[in-house]
């Protein structure tokens, strides 16, 4: 009997202490709920690496994912109703104004920032997309900018080039301007070309046009070349008085072309989001595609792509002219202005979280340089390069499956985009989501032909003024100036 | 029944086969899609596994092995929310239906009689959901009901009660009162008469109400999306979430949809003979 | 529902003859009333309340109160902080997007109800016949209803794709057989004129079975003697359908039409998934617009105001419909 008691005591002790001994971590018993979009991209790495953190700290990570179209509503509703169900949020940088300005996110302590090798992070991603005012509210995770993808095998084909030159007066090349881009799209559209061993008609381009999705960023990429004034960082609004520039002739030209380009793409394109074009373009549907960096790693995945090794990468084309809203006239000069759409996914911690310490620790764990470097070259993570070390090291990309030429091409395109002196930053002020959603609907109406591009953008301008006045014109202006780094005349 | 002429039979079978095809083809398509690789979808339609494409089980494996826990959690959440609200709705709904069928009510404020009360109850089913989502969210976060099974059960019960009352009241109207009355005369209480005599006789009605309630709650999306965050998320929200920046994950959507639909179809098969009988109600005999 | 529930004579209603019954009378009805009242009263009052304010994201109480006093466009209530205004209601008639969404929704309701009722009635007549494996076929007919609308919409996107779907290939094949120069491409989801129809088709695929089910249960309740009598009088099938079956099913038809109509009125998931409201604003539904207004744009007060107007319209619509049906119904007033 005694023995039994002793045995029971030992068992109890062992059971009681074993987990404590094994976990012993600082966050034992705490559960961190992470929210982001669904699927392997962005959320996948959390799934994969959380166990490592759990083992080290004794904490517990739960991942909750929503479709992109519902993510903003879920996050903002959680804050505005005070429910605060999420501790760590991985979200697109352009929602920063709506989350950071009202104080929904916890400022990131300096010691965490110091651990991230801050000098390695491209300044654009290090400071501009993660801070609100002087305070950093998020950790950089991913870097995102739009770029141009094209079929190298078709564009650099001598036969086609000769035929093209006969029609358009210049040979086929990587398009530098939107005019050239549309010429080439028109030329190839409907042409019977060989893709993955089958000869079939190909479309000129595949661009996202679906409403209520992410396609307005694609339109903004068109608008940048026509609406951005070199040397003036203010693109969406004038930095003098917050007058929307969205309906100036530069933007209108961009929208007219975007609408017209429907005829160079598949009929289904108007119902395609970026998520669809990045499935279709690698499947060989079109010659051109505009997207974030994601298509690079997808193009070399044989399960999803037939264009591995024959994909060309380039910064976005520019305008052959641009509208100078200060002078009120067209300037007939070539103007390349790559659009840093979106800015990337960043990691924030809810200020109302009751496991703040653990949440911060996990956020830092996910954003640590060694991990982010690996993730950027792995297909399916959705994480694109945001650090110099990722872009300077070609081997990273070659090891991931790119051929050497493609890797160099891809990295160059990204570097040329983010280092471009005339690059345009995404809108990052309070109400960004609302400003852009308004744009989204009106673009969609113009694309469908319900209203003219001019009418559509006039409507947008009216809405934008209303939103600006609601939030307070002066404070919006101050935010906009700060977000683009406007220093005044 | 008079004998059909041959062409009438041919027409009948043609219609039946045609409509079965319309109904079943999407299910077949979901099935084949769940076995496809991305390129099988993005490079033109492929119809029959093994014949025009090489099927893969990897999506099913991903959902039920690697993601098994997540998938099953959502499935269980749907099941708990749907069955909980079904039980409550059937109970509360049949009580109210019985009350409205057997007793005369006349309220003073507002001045409503049975039909008005019934109409008010049924009208709750038609309130615009957009009116409810935001206040519910506030109410629920104040009460700590966000992301709980109870929270979902309460909303779904609210939306299932009107339908339950409507069907059950009609059903009870067709049931003769003699049996209950003789039970009452024999000394049974009203409640005993209801539970022991009326409810068993109403099995078909109860079954059809239960099935409708279950299907509604099982498939509901908007409230599930807004009122759950993590623990209590249901299958429809999981299905909708398969649209991400990697493209719409058609194979996962297909596999999850089939998983979600299977139990309901099986239950439907088992209880088919009840459903139509239950709805017969007093609809015709006037 | 009133239209359908004419009371059989043998069910006597009473206020309760015994004391116990007078109590039980309340016990039976109260739970339902209490649940519905508790759950609907707060949202209704809240929505009604804020629909008269300017509560929305970005408008802090102080600012708007200041704005109100300076503009003089509304009365600023000092204690409340928010402006009390009728602006939300005044804005509706000029809100182009709202009007389009309302028109789209009405289209869904009318087209959807007509298609579903006609098909549903026909299928109910078919299912009421005797044929091989009828029970299995009945369940097959019901299957679409059991799929979550989100999934039905995704299936719709797959099957109505204008190039990659079997349907598209069918049209291509037909074009080849007919020797057409350009293959027929139906822009199922990508043209502003066709897409609303496609939405209706998806909804009808799902919910025609519901109509069938309800009408079938009605058909089965019609006693055979009525048909026999008509046949003896020499009526043909069409006459029987017109003179007997259809009128007898009228009350049930009205109910089913009302239910489907009001359910379609609330359509959102199918639209969001299938088209996102596009192309342009061709398929945006009212519920979707309200939802976006509230959560994406943070304009809670305007969303509440629209919902409220909608609620009133729905109630008026339903009541008028019921009154008309009761007039038309042969059992009226019984």
Structure description:
- The complex is a heterotrimer of chains A (489), B (286) and C (334).
- Chain A has 489 residues and is of the alpha/beta class.
- Chain A folds into two domains: 28-140 and 345-383, Periplasmic binding protein-like II (D-Maltodextrin-Binding Protein, domain 2); 147-341 and 422-484, D-Maltodextrin-Binding Protein, domain 2, CATH 3.40.190.10.
- Chain A has helices spanning 2-23, 43-57, 68-80, 96-100, 110-114, 123-128, 152-155, 158-168, 178-188, 215-227, 249-260, 274-280, 295-299, 356-367, 369-377, 388-392, 394-399, 404-418, 432-448, 453-471, 473-484, and strands at 31-37, 60-66, 88-92, 131-132, 135-136, 138-140, 147-151, 192-195, 198-201, 203-206, 286-291, 311-314, 322-324, 329-331, 339-340, 345-349, 424-425.
- In chain A, the strands form six sheets. Chain A has a five-stranded mixed β-sheet.
- In chain A, strand 4 and strand 5 (135-136) form a beta hairpin.
- The model of chain A is unreliable at 11-23 (pLDDT under 50).
- In chain B, 73% of the residues lie in helices and 1% in strands.
- Chain B is built from 13 helices and two strands.
- Chain B has helices at 6-33, 38-42, 58-66, 68-102, 114-123, 129-143, 149-174, 178-185, 190-201, 203-219, 222-227, 235-240, 250-280, and strands at residues 243-244, 247-248.
- Chain B has a two-stranded antiparallel ribbon with strand order 1-2.
- In chain C, 67% of the residues lie in helices and 1% in strands.
- A two-stranded antiparallel ribbon of chain C has the order 1-2.
- Chain C has helices spanning 19-51, 61-71, 87-91, 96-127, 134-142, 149-159, 166-178, 195-221, 224-232, 237-265, 269-274, 286-296, 300-328, and strands at 75-76, 83-84.
- In chain C, helix 10 runs antiparallel to helix 13 (300-328).
- Mean pLDDT of chain C is 83; it is low at 1-10 and 62-80.
- By secondary structure, chain C is mainly alpha-helical.
- The longest helix of chain C has 33 residues, at 19-51.
- Chain C has a domain at 96-160 and 193-328: MetI-like fold (Orthogonal Bundle).
- The chains are: A alpha/beta (489), B mainly alpha (286), C mainly alpha (334).
- Chains in contact: A-B, A-C, B-C.
